[in-house]
Every structure is written in structure tokens, then in C-alpha cells.
Amino acid sequence: MNEETLLQIAKAEIANKIVLAEDYFNQTFELPMLNLKQRGKIAGSAHLQKNLINLNLSLFEDNIDEFIQQVIPHEVAHIVCYQLYGKVKPHGREWQAVMHSVFQRPANVTHQLDVSNVGISEYNYRCLCPEHVKLSAIRHNRVLKGTQQYRCRQCKTVLKQVLSESLV
To answer: What H or E segment, with its residue span, contains residue 137?
Structure first.
């Protein structure tokens, strides 16, 4: 499916969710703008002050049903919450209530989409645990520049880059 068709599908779904919220809360909501420029492993994001939803075109193309059923309602729920309540916890009780009561969808915080085709570079790092950790290119570059260290969530030791498979 081409980008323009996906854009039209997403706009229609966003408008549909806004109408559901307007009916439920008996008030009007400003329709958010939309772009398909979200990058990386993130399926979508809501920029509340800009009233903007970003969707990941690559993931959308491969997972249209999941975007319609979960990703778009998730992001619209953020917009609705912001317009209703102002600044609240991103996945707090207000957002969960919109997902459950208004959109009749589970309040999943993260997606389970296959992101192997999005072209993200990952680098192997190790700690004292037996398994390796993968860091994104952004985090890897921060380590190389010396501006950031990352610690294992389990053993709390600083992660070190695995330079070759022979060190595994």
C-alpha cells in the first residue's frame, strides 16, 4: 500500500477516535495533525503541545490492522487526555480510562511488532550476567564519545562493548 493511502487510512481512524471521544465526553476536541515520519522501533508518538501524532510508516505498512486496532487509539488517547486534563502521567489512569472506556481497547503501553526490518543498528554489550545486551546506535555513540555510561538492570555493572564474537 502506498504512503498516501496509509495517510488517508490513519487520518480517517484518528477522526473516528476523536468523534468517539467527543460523544463520550460531550465536548469537542481539536483534531490532531498527522505525519508518517516516526523513526526507529517506535510505532507512534503523540506531541501533545503541538497536537501532532507521528506514525512509523515502515511499521504501519507491515502492520496495518495493529495500527488501526491499537497504535492509533493509543496515540489519540494521549491527545484526548492532554486536551481534557492537561499534563498527566503518560500512561496513567486517565489515559487507561480513555483506552478502556472510550475506545474499548486494552491499555497496552508498548507494542509487540516485529521491528527487524526497520534498519536499526544495534551493538552488543556485556556485563556480569551471562546474556548480552544490545544498545541502539544512539546509545552506542554516546558511550564512544564518553558522554554516557549504561548499567545492566540486573547486576548494575557498567555495560562494556563486545568488540568481537571471540569475547562471547
So the answer is: helix 137-145
75 among known catalytic residues: yes
Place of cell 486517565: 94
For residue 41, pLDDT over 60 is answered with yes
Model pTM?
0.74
Can you list the alpha helix ranges (DSSP code H) found in 2-136? 3-25, 57-62, 64-66, 72-85, 93-97
The catalytically annotated residue of 3, 61, 66, 75 is: 75
pLDDT mean across residues, the chain: 91
Nearest CA-CA partner of 102 in 10, 12, 26: 26
pLDDT (tens digit per residue) in 131-153: 888 888 788 999 999 999 999 98
> What cell numbers appear for 37 in the block?
515520519
Cβ count within 10 A of residue 1: 9
